[in-house]
Amino acid sequence: MNHYLIVYRSITQAQLAGRALDRAGIGHQIQRTPAGLTERGCSYSVRVPERYGRQALELLQGARPAFYTIFKGSGGSYAELVP
Amino acid sequence: MIYFDASATTLQKPSAVRRAVEEALCHMSSPGRGGYPSTRRAEELLLTARTELGEMFGVSDPQRVVFTSNATHGLNIAIRTLVHDGSQVVISGYEHNAVTRTLHAFRDLDLRVADGPLFDSAAMVHRFRELIGPETDCVICTHVSNVFGFVLPVEAVAAICRERGVPLIVDASQSAGTLPVDLEDWGAAFVAMPGHKGLYGPQGTGILLCGGETAAPLLYGGTGSSSKEQDMPDILPDRLEAGTHDLPGVAGLLAGARFVRSIGTGRIREHAVVLKEQLLRALERDRRFIPYGTHDPQAQVGVLSFQAAGMDSEVLGEALAARNIALRAGFHCAPLAHRTAGTIDRGTVRFSVSAFNLGGEVAGLLSALNEIVPPLRG
Q1: B237 and A CB contact within 8 Å
Q2: Tell me: the pLDDT tens digits for B183-226?
Q3: Could you say which residues of chain A have pLDDT below 70?
Q4: What confidence score (pLDDT) does residue B285 get?
Q5: Is the preceding peptide bond at A65 cis, omega within 30 degrees of 0?
Q6: Residues forming beta bridges with residue A79, ordered by sequence position
Q7: How far apart are the first and last CA of chain B?
Q8: For residues B369 and B366, what is the distance between their CA atoms, to the nearest angstrom?
Q9: Please, are residues B50 and B237 in contact by the beta-carbon 8 Å criterion?
Q10: For A15, which of B43, B225, B233 is closest by C-beta distance?
Q11: % helix, strand, coil for chain A, step of 5
């Protein structure tokens, strides 16, 4: 299923983003970022289904904590989006 | 046992603390180390604890609530962030060794001690105002003296620091859970507190509330984040939380803090002051004792130091211990406070209470003191 991975530098940051999405009623999951996507090593991502992508990005863009980067996932491959 | 050593550790804990510790031990693994349910539970617990403790202590961003192994650990981080060899530091005359020994390890400090008589808040404010200058790198003030229960005027000291642009470290070891503690109201750089005293958590837990300063790590190691990089992460709480968390400890600390919130710090303090007054008034009536107390409820919490005429404080403490009554005697790891108050020669016996103590226990202590301490000659 197509989705977005909104990447945060720590579990705490990802959880806080998850709480903001919860409050807005936006479905999501917190997961570890695939190792191949992370230059810095371990990190956590908020995974949002494609249908909620725009809503989630509007909410989290410019919010604190700031996300590190965003990927669009499709069929097992990821493309980094320029925020 | 009659336990009056809450200033060291509250021994009686709410039953919810034991249950929370057990739950964490049995069902939670390392946070930030995986995506499986036991780690997720641990992560949820940590964020919930950071959020609730932040609400309790005036920290709007949960990332700025850092878990430490005790208040000393937090104070070391705070001091090592703000103080360097040659710094000018202003401290109160009632600081604990957690502050003074940490400062002693620096070279060529210009250390200025704001001293003043016990329970005289105005004098303390005056001294801080005199000593904090344009060259001051850092001010450190305990909120409550661990020896005397003296409530220092932290709000006023914080106002001076804000006015003069000097970072403030507050040691809230004896006030957290008893008095309002608010990092953002004070504009403090750091506030350190233990989990095992007035917050009724397990020993080995503590909290460091972080303001705007970029804190220097004390420990280096794994954080479950940015793991390919060899520098510690520059984000909180990861920067200050290397290694595996004491999850059962944090779970117990959160349960203890919820207990405090459910009763209210105001009620806990009132109860403590009532018991302290019961002892203070009795000791004041008996010429064998020298109590260091005040009847001003704003100036002293439920901690009271006293001496017995002609009797060593440690000997008295041991005699009480033999009767299964727990008070702490000696210098309480705070020689500076004893020097400031004029009790450095003999030390004191310290009575300190928790929400679980009762008036009958104070009566039991008084009865034991009456038996142990010999009558005055002449």
Answers
A1: yes
A2: 999 999 999 999 999 999 999 999 999 998 889 999 999 999 99
A3: 83
A4: 97
A5: yes
A6: A72
A7: 35
A8: 5
A9: yes
A10: B43
A11: 35, 35, 35
Right CATH for B15-263 from 3.30.70.3340, 3.40.1010.10, 3.30.70.420, 3.40.640.10: 3.40.640.10
Please give the average pLDDT of every successive group of 10 residues along chain B, which has 378 residues: 98 98 97 90 97 98 98 98 98 98 98 98 98 97 98 98 98 98 98 98 98 94 94 97 97 98 98 98 98 97 96 97 98 97 96 98 98 89
Across the interface, of B226, B228, B237, the residue whose CB is closest to A12 is B237
Task: Give the architecture (CATH level 2) of B2-10+265-372.
Answer: Alpha-Beta Complex (3.90)
Domain A3-75, second-level architecture: 2-Layer Sandwich (3.30)
Pairwise CA distance, residues B116 & B12, whole Å = 34
How open is the CA angle B138-B333-B298, to the nearest 5 degrees? 70
Angle between helices B154-164 and B121-131 (to 10 degrees): 20
Residue keyed to tokens 């009620």: B267
Going from N- to C-terminal start, the domains of chain A cover 3-75
CB–CB contact A41 B50 (8 Å): no
Residue B295 identity (one-letter amino acid): H
Q: What is the pLDDT of residue A39?
A: 86
> What is the residue whose two structure tokens read 């090593």?
A41
Query: What local confidence, expressed as pLDDT, does residue B378 receive?
Result: 66
Task: Give the pair of three-digit tokens for residue B69.
Answer: 């192994």
Q: What is the DSSP string of B240-262?
A: G--S---HHHHHHHHHHHHHHHH
On chain A, the residues whose CB falls within 8 A of the CB of B46 are 12
Query: Residue B35: its pLDDT value, please?
Result: 86
Residue A75 CB-density burial (10 A; 0-12 exposed, 13-18 middle, 19+ buried): exposed
3-class DSSP state of B82: helix
List the single best residue of B30, B225, B235 to mutate versus A (max A Cβ within 10 A).
B225
pLDDT at B33: 83
Token pair for residue B291?
Answer: 């109590």
Give the dihedral of Cα atoms B69, B222, B190, B207; nearest 10 deg: -30
Is the minimum CB–CB distance between B35 and chain A shorter than 8 Å?
yes
Contact of B367 with chain A, judged by CB distance below 8 Å, is answered with: no
Residue A40 sits at the chain B interface (C-beta within 8 Å) = yes
Q: What angle do CA B89, B68, B178 make, to 5 degrees?
A: 75
